[in-house]
Design a protein that fits this description.
- The complex is a heterotrimer of chains A (237), B (222) and C (200).
- Chain B contains ten helices and no strands.
- Chain B is an all-alpha fold and 222 residues long.
- Chain B has one domain.
- Chain B is elongated and about 55 Å long.
- Helix content of chain C is 30%, strand content 29%.
- Chain C contains six helices and nine strands.
- Chains in contact: A-B, A-C, B-C.
Chain lengths: 237, 222, 200
C-alpha cells in the first residue's frame, strides 16, 4: 500500500506518468496497427464468414468496458477508505473511457448481429446487460457533474460506483435469466479456432495500452487543470 | 415508543399530510396503466400478455415520484442534523425512511394492482402472482431508491438525476417481478422467480441503509 | 454529566482552502464559549466539527465526563444539543406534534412545560406553517430544552429574535450553564454570560 501511495501523490504521479506515457502510447499504436492487420488477414470462419473480423474489435471493447468499471470501483474503494484525492481524479477520468468502450461494444455488437441474427438488435443477453452498463456509466458521470462541491461529488460518486459494482453481477445474472425465459436468440460461439488467437490477443493488448494511455492523459489533464485554477484563484485574491 | 417508531410515524404523518405521498403515486400508477392500452390497442390477449411488465414498470416509476424528497426535506429545513444527533444510528434512520416510503407508496401500489390487472384482462393466478411479486419487490425499490435519494439530497434538481442513477440498478427487480407473471401465464410456476426477487429485496433492504447512511454523513459534513 | 470539552490543535480545510489551523481551547462544565469571526472564517464549520458532522483535517476533540474520555465523533454527538441556522420544523406538524417528535426521538418523555418556558403554550395546536420567524426560533429552543443534552452548540442563537426573545435565550443559556452544562455559540453579539471568547 505504501508503495502505491508514493506514486499516488500528484507530483510523483506527474513525473512517473510523464516518463511512461510515450512508451504506452507508442505501444498502443503498434499493437493496434498489428492487430488490425491480423484481423483483416485471418481466413473467414466456417460459420460466421468474414464477420469474425468484427469480433476482434468487439470483444476487446467489451472487456475493456468491464476493466474500466473495475478500475473505477477499485479507485472508489481507495478513495472512501484512505481518502486519497488522486484516486477520485483517477475514478472520474476513467468513466468517459469506459462509457466509450461500452458504446463501441454495443455498436460493433449490433453490426455483428445484423448478418448473424438478421437484425441489429435482438435483445441478446450480453448486449442488453451492456446497454444497462452504459446507463450506469451515464448516471455515474451525471452525478459527478451535478454536485458542485468537488469533495462531496467525489465521495457520492464513489459510493454510487461501489453500489454499482455490487449490482452489476446481479444485473448480468438477471438479464441472462430473463433471456432464457424469453427464448432469446443468443448464439454461443464455440471455442475460438487457434488461427484467430494472435489477432484477438494483439487487439486486446492494443486496447489495454490505449486505455492506460488515455487514462493517464486524462488524469494528468485534471491535475494540471486544478493547478491552473489554484494559480488563478491566488491571483484573484 | 422507540426512536425508530417515532421517526417512522412522523414520516408517515408527513406523507399523509403533504397530499403528495400515496394519492399521487396511485393516480400516476393508474394513469400509466390507462395510457398503455391507448398506445398498444385494446386487444385483450395482447394486454394480458404485457400486463406484468407494464404494471411493474409503472409501479417502479410511480414509486420514484416521491423518492427524491426522502432525505431532501429534512436536509433543507435542518431536521436532518437534529435527527443525526439523536440516539438512533443513521443506518436505522435510513431504514425507518425506507419503511415509511414503502408503506406510503409501495404497499398502496401493491393493493391497487389487482384492480389494474382486471383492466388488463389478467386471470386470477397471474394476478395473484403480480400481487405477490409487487409485495415482495417494492421494498427493494424503496431501498435502492433510498441510496439514490441520499446521494442527490443536496441537489436542487435531484429529481432529474435520481431516475438515471437508480433505474439501471432496479433492472433485476423488474425482470424477476414481471418474469414471475410471465411464467404463470405460460402455465409454469412463478415460485423460482419470486424466490430470486425475494433474495434481491432482502439484500437490498439489508445493505442499502449502510450506503444511504454513508451518503447522508457525507452531506452533513458540508 | 460531562466535565469539559477540549480541542487540541484543530485544523479545518474546505477544498484547497484552510479555514483555521492549530486551534486549541478548553471549556469546562458551567462555562460558555463565544466563537467570533468574520463570515466565512469557519464558525459554523467549528460547530459542525464539534457535533461530529465534519472530520477535522488535523487535531482532536476530547469530551471528558466523570467516568470516561470520549474521542469518537459519533459518540460525542450523543451529548450535543443542536441549534443550527435552520429550525428543523415541518409546516405540516403542529407545535406540540413537532416537539413531542423531537422528545421521543431523543428518548425523552414529551414535556408540555417546555412550551410554556419559551412562551408558546397558546400555539400548541397550531401547525408550524403559521408561526412567525421568532416563534419558530422559540420552538427550536423548546426542542433544545426537551433534548436534555449537556453540550449546547448554537449557531447565531440571537438571529430572528426580538428583544424579548433575546432576553429569553439569554436566560435559558444562563440556566443551562448554572446546571453545569456547556455552551459553545457562534455569534456576532456578546453572550453576556461572563464567558470567554474565541476569535477565528
Amino acid at each position: 500500500m505504501q508503495f502505491l501511495f508514493r506514486y499516488a501523490n500528484p507530483h510523483n504521479f506527474m513525473r512517473l506518468s510523464g516518463a511512461v506515457l510515450p512508451f504506452t502510447a507508442i505501444g498502443a499504436a503498434l499493437a493496434l496497427i498489428a492487430g488490425i492487420y491480423f484481423s483483416f488477414s485471418v481466413p473467414p470462419d466456417y460459420q460466421q464468414g468474414t464477420t469474425i473480423t468484427i469480433l476482434f474489435i468487439h470483444v476487446p471493447a467489451a472487456i475493456m468496458a468491464m476493466v474500466a468499471y473495475s478500475s473505477i470501483a477499485v479507485c472508489s474503494l481507495l478513495s472512501l477508505v484512505w481518502r486519497h484525492p488522486l484516486s477520485d481524479t483517477a475514478a472520474r477520468a476513467a468513466a468517459p473511457l469506459g462509457a466509450m468502450f461500452t458504446v463501441m461494444g454495443l455498436i460493433t455488437g449490433a453490426l455483428w448481429g445484423k448478418p448473424m441474427w438478421g437484425a441489429y438488435w435482438v435483445w441478446d443477453a450480453r448486449l442488453t446487460s451492456f446497454l444497462l452498463l452504459l446507463f450506469i456509466y451515464l448516471g455515474y458521470m451525471a452525478l459527478w457533474s451535478a454536485i458542485e462541491d468537488e469533495i462531496k461529488a467525489a465521495r457520492a460518486a464513489a459510493i454510487l460506483a461501489l453500489v454499482g459494482a455490487v449490482n452489476i453481477p446481479i444485473i448480468k445474472f438477471s438479464v441472462e435469466w430473463w433471456n432464457t425465459l424469453h427464448q432469446g436468440e443468443t448464439i454461443t460461439t464455440g471455442k475460438l479456432a487457434s488461427v484467430y488467437v494472435p489477432a484477438l490477443l494483439t487487439m486486446m493488448l492494443g486496447y489495454f495500452l490505449l486505455f492506460i494511455t488515455l487514462w493517464m492523459v486524462r488524469i494528468r489533464t485534471a491535475i494540471l487543470e486544478r493547478r491552473a485554477r489554484n494559480l488563478m484563484q491566488g491571483v484573484a485574491s | 415508543m422507540s426512536s425508530f417508531g417515532t421517526l417512522l410515524l412522523r414520516d408517515l404523518r408527513l406523507a399523509a399530510r403533504s397530499g403528495g405521498g400515496a394519492a399521487l403515486a396511485l393516480s400516476f400508477f393508474a394513469l400509466v396503466a390507462t395510457l398503455v392500452p391507448l398506445g398498444v390497442g385494446a386487444d385483450l390477449k395482447l394486454l394480458a400478455r404485457v400486463a406484468g411488465g407494464v404494471l411493474w414498470v409503472a409501479a417502479v416509476l410511480s414509486a420514484l415520484l416521491s423518492l427524491d424528497r426522502l432525505f431532501q426535506g429534512d436536509f433543507e429545513d435542518g431536521s436532518l442534523e437534529v435527527i443525526a444527533l439523536s440516539p438512533l444510528a443513521l443506518e436505522m434512520v435510513a431504514l425507518a425512511k425506507i419503511l415509511a416510503h414503502w408503506l406510503s407508496t409501495g404497499l398502496p401500489l401493491t393493493l391497487l394492482s389487482p384492480l389494474l390487472a382486471l383492466l388488463f384482462n389478467l386471470d386470477v393466478a397471474p394476478t395473484l402472482t403480480l400481487f405477490l411479486s409487487l409485495l415482495i419487490g417494492t421494498p427493494a425499490v424503496s431501498a435502492v431508491g433510498a441510496i439514490g435519494a441520499s446521494l442527490t439530497l443536496s441537489l436542487k434538481r435531484g429529481g432529474l438525476i435520481l431516475p438515471l442513477i437508480i433505474l439501471p440498478l432496479l433492472a433485476p427487480v423488474v425482470i424477476f417481478g414481471a418474469g414471475a407473471v410471465a411464467l404463470v401465464l405460460d402455465g409454469m410456476s412463478g415460485g423460482g422467480a419470486l424466490g430470486l426477487l425475494a433474495a434481491f429485496a432482502f439484500g437490498a433492504v439489508l445493505l442499502s441503509p449502510f450506503a444511504a447512511a454513508a451518503s447522508v454523513r457525507l452531506n452533513l459534513g458540508g | 454529566m460531562i466535565s469539559s470539552l477540549t480541542a487540541e490543535k484543530l485544523a479545518c480545510t474546505r477544498g484547497d482552502r484552510r479555514l483555521f489551523d492549530g486551534l486549541s481551547f478548553r471549556v469546562s462544565a458551567g462555562q460558555a464559549l463565544a466563537v467570533e469571526g468574520a463570515n466565512g472564517a469557519g464558525k459554523t464549520s467549528l460547530l459542525r466539527m464539534i457535533a461530529g458532522f465534519l472530520a477535522p483535517a488535523a487535531g482532536r476533540l476530547v469530551l471528558k465526563s466523570a467516568q470516561a474520555e470520549i474521542t469518537d465523533a459519533e459518540e460525542r454527538g450523543k451529548s450535543v444539543g443542536w441549534l443550527g441556522h435552520h429550525d428543523g420544523l415541518k409546516p405540516q406538524l403542529t407545535v406540540r406534534e413537532q416537539l413531542d417528535f423531537f422528545a421521543r426521538l431523543y428518548g425523552r418523555a414529551p414535556d408540555a412545560s417546555a412550551l410554556e418556558r419559551v412562551g408558546l403554550a397558546r400555539q400548541a395546536e397550531l401547525p408550524c406553517r403559521y408561526l412567525s420567524a421568532g416563534q419558530r426560533r422559540r420552538l427550536a429552543l423548546a426542542r433544545l430544552l426537551v433534548s436534555e443534552r449537556p453540550l449546547w452548540l448554537l449557531d447565531e442563537p440571537f438571529a430572528a429574535l426580538d428583544t424579548a426573545g433575546q432576553g429569553l435565550i439569554a436566560q435559558l443559556m444562563a440556566r443551562h450553564c448554572g446546571h453545569g452544562g456547556i455552551i459553545i455559540a457562534a455569534t456576532h453579539d456578546p453572550l453576556g454570560l461572563g464567558n470567554e471568547s474565541l476569535k477565528l
